[in-house]
Each structure stands twice: as C-alpha cells, then as structure tokens.
Amino acid sequence: VQLQASGGGLVQAGASLRLSCAASGRTGSTYVMGWFRQAPGKEHVFVAAIRWNGNRISYGDTAKGRFTVSIDNAKNTMYLQMNSLKPEDTAIYYCAASTTTWGIPITHGGYNYWGQGTLVTVSS
Fold first, then answer.
1. Which 3 state secondary structure label does DSSP give 86?
2. Which of left, alpha, beta for 25 (phi over 0: left; psi -120 to 50: alpha)?
3. Tens digits of per-residue pLDDT, 68-120?
4. Partners of 72 in the beta sheet?
5. Is the Cα torsion angle 88, 90, 92, 97 positive or negative in sign?
6. Which of 15, 21, 58, 123 is deepest in the core (most CB within 10 A)?
7. Pairing state between β 91-98 and 118-123
8. Under DSSP, is residue 7 helix (H, G, I), strand (E, B) or coil?
9. What distance lies between CA 33 and its chain's CA centroid?
C-alpha cells in the first residue's frame, strides 16, 4: 500500500487547509485510514481516523471541533479539513493505513503503512 499526502502549506492563524491522502496498491487489505502529526522535537500525535466504509470516525483532542476527516472510496482518498488553524497546529502531517479489522487505532503502532508527510505551517 502506498500513501501520498498533499495539501500542506503556509497559512495565517485562523485560516483553513484541506489535506489529501491518496492510497494505491493493495488498499483492500486496509480498513482504517488515519492522520497523525509531528511537531519539531515531538512524537507523533493522533489527529483523526476513519474506516474505509465511513461508519466510524475518531478524533484526537486537538482536532475536535475544528478538523473534519472524510473519505472518498471511489478515489481511494482521505481528506482532512482543518479550520481555525492555530500556530500550535504547525507540524508535519502524516497519513497512515491500518489493517485493523475492528475499531479505530489511535496509536502510531496501530498503523501498518505510512505516507511521506506534508508540512503545515501556521503563522501568528
């Protein structure tokens, strides 16, 4: 499974961005797609995840109320709509895929495949 994240950039506080993650290869072996972020010098933090059938979604604390995760099965693409961005949202955002057949993993170890990341920088 290959994952390609895109959509990052430099924005001002309060702005919005939409990240995309295009999946290819043996996507049928995966059941959950997720977003993590990593700020400089810090560990990966869970942002959001969604099952391919869209029937279950989970958000990390930093994403609740401002970010929305969605998925387009026809395009094999997951999205992360980020609104009201803050400087503390600055990080590299990674998309990941999990073969977990039940629930939504929220830890780094719960995902089997990772994309290369896209940088989001929010200026104050």
1. coil
2. left
3. 999 999 999 999 999 999 999 999 999 999 999 889 999 999 999 999 999 99
4. 77
5. positive
6. 21
7. antiparallel
8. coil
9. 8
**CB-based contact 34:108 (threshold 8 Å):** no
pLDDT tens readout for residues 21-36: 999 999 888 999 999 9
Strand partners, 60: none
Distance CA 92, CA 103 (A): 25
Residue 96's alpha-carbon distances to 13, 15, 84, 107, 123, in angstroms, are 26, 25, 24, 11, 26
E-state strands within 1-124: 2-6, 9-12, 17-24, 32-38, 45-51, 57-59, 67-72, 77-82, 91-98, 113-114, 118-123
d(CA 31, CA 98): 6
User: Look-up: residue for tokens 């830890």?
Assistant: 107
